[in-house]
Design brief:
The structure holds two protein chains of two kinds. By secondary structure, chain A is mainly alpha-helical. Helices cover 72% and strands 2% of the residues of chain A. The chains are: A mainly alpha, B alpha/beta.
Chain lengths: 531, 295
Amino acid sequence: MNAVVRDAVTLVETEFRVRVRRVLGDRRKLVGTVSTFLLFGVFFPWLSRDGVVAFGADAAAGPVPLGPLGAAFTGLAIVCVGVGASTGFNQEAAGTVGPLVRTSVPPTAVSLARLGSELARGLSLFVLLGAVMLGFLWMGAGGPLVPAVVATGALPVLVAGLLVGRVAGDAARYANVAAGISLWVKAVAAVVLTVAFFVGTQALLRTEGAEGEGGLAAVSVPPFLPGTPMQAYAGVVTAPLGSTPTLPGTAVAAVTLTAIPLALVAAVRVETRLLFRASASETDQVSGTRGVPRPFTVGPAARVAWRYLLRTRRDPRILSHLMLVLFMGLGGFGNVIQDPGAIFDVGPAIGVIGGATLAGAAYCMNPLGDDVDQLPLLLTSADSTGVLLRGRALAGATLGLPLALGFGVPLAAVGESPLFAVWLAVIAVVLIFAGAGVALGIGAVAPKFEQYEYMSVERPHPSNYAIFGYLMGVLLTGGIGFVLAGRLATGAPGVLVTTALTVYLAVVGAAGWGGYVYANRRFDALTLDDF
Amino acid sequence: MSEPSPPNTDRDPASGETDTSNADPALFARDLTKRYGETTALDSLDLTVDSGVVFGFLGPNGAGKTTTMRIFTGLIEPTDGEARVAGVSSENRAKLVDRIGLLPEEPPLYDELTGREQLQFAADLRDIRWETVSDRALSLCDRLDLREDLDRRIDGYSKGMRQKTAFVQAVQHDPSVVFLDEPTSGLDPRAAKTLRELILDLADSDATVFLSTHILPVVEEIADEVGVLHEGRLVAQGPIDELVASAGGAADAPSAAGSLDDGGAADGSAPESADLEDAFLSLTSREDTVWTPDS
């Protein structure tokens, strides 16, 4: 066993060195990592600074407010389970030395190393955040006792959450590997689970009382089990501050502590099995050549577009990077699911802005980057990369147009007015094609040629920052479009509104064209030296 | 080593385009150099290859063969010097693509497409209607026993089938110069033999085949001419028998190595016991042919 642990430690150290060198050797990765740590470790805690300081003061004065502390522990558990599940499903650790490692050290050591490496990485995100939050608590309490007690209570929740999440992620991956089901079924299941997780979390953690009253003190966890478990747990860990431990609280603490070794053993065992389990169905094996249907026969770019769509139909993992877009759009979905009547309010935006987002983000955010293995063919066959870029834009528009014109615009017609819907349709079409052009330009500025694993798919995914920036741009531009459509739908738009619409369409169209032209020039000059 | 024949680089004053008449060699390189930082991958390569020949390009691992092929096909740019394919600069990609076909070492295929869809896609990239090239493509597939598998997904193909598909993709549009990097890699003996026959057919139809491989018997069988690259420098070029003779003679007199035109056996014939492998080993092991940054 000692040898297994020693091998695992060696692997973790090697993996850590490789990761650090990769980050330090790539300026973009370095900036991204530092930004993530600052965002997660400083910016987020800063937003809740006043509430945490006030909580520290209340806890020091007694009695400890168990509601917000229980809510904080619940939130921590949810985040940790999510991080753990994500790492368990993706299983990317030890990937850099995978084949060598698998044939050199015991499988248990490999699993243990993967687990250790990923957990260390997950925990690293919490170190700065925890330190800042505990600092605020210390400020509020005026001494170290309150932060020490809270940290002591949070640590088991954090570790147990990561490990239990890891087991859940492992189980999902095991089912994914073992089940020979369609990739599309898996993709739909992943989307449904993501939405359900988000909506469920919203329902679980809700703010009581009038908005603006009470801050963190107004946050509580609904009693879905007798004894409101995490508040009860908070009562146990804050006993040194004067709280009275209850039996349910002690039980929760015992379960939490017991979960740590059990989940560790379970995760190692499942992951060791996964090492030797070949995927039953990596792709949807459908034989038979599909001809190019009308209207995609009109030209080479359209035929290229059809092939991108066909490849996606056969392997939806090509669009795995769109999960980020889904995450960012969860707020809208959550509103609709919790209040179906809101469909007429947010539906047009989901349709039009979602359509424009899809048109750009689906195939245009990393043009040629995600064709890196085929570049020797592409660069020695096409006299200009324009045919590929136009093909990608058309493929994206083919996905975006139905969402905008078939979902968003009809909802606008019902929820607002037919005239509003007509103007919205005009704006949507321009937004979608211009969006694809802008996305091509962004993709040309920040191409990604290296393969990495995201959502369990290893390929050159587009830059998350590029997708995020593009979505923000679409939100802003689309928002202006909605305002203009609203003014135009009044029936008698003045010169100002008409001029504004003309300028808007001209600017958006020019941006799209400019993006395409820039990408075309940039990629026509692309060589294999560039990456 | 002889100076390369200058290509016809006359330009049309009106269009500024190069005259790509038959007077141009299929491949021409002058002082071609590629550096990666401190490393020189290709060092002042001078090379001329005439049309309609199978040119075997040999060299040890890391000698610069792939780099040379990538420069000629416009996939990378030279640090110095120039490369032309049928009179077209390798940096003029828009014109170059009409003349070349490339089979790189890793077949550039999309796993999600069927073989037929992949070939159609390649035609679309060149803006060529599939109907125009389908007879030729399907005929090649017939000869390579690929026809029955054309409607299967490529991710279900064996390595040999992928190689065959990529070969058809590289030549279906009837290019004037075909670049093949280890074309028989992964092929069974029967398929490898068919591929060698196809390469000879290409040369018979006046296409030039630039063949990079480590499999010397393949080169001996089908190449009209060979070039040997060693540590970024072309250490020999010429017909195989002259190369073998040169190397055989040079084995007795090492200082004569490096140029077929300058050295070799007095009667131009190879010693009975020498073959291309001996010549290759001899040429790529001599200190006086090895370039170093200090030399």
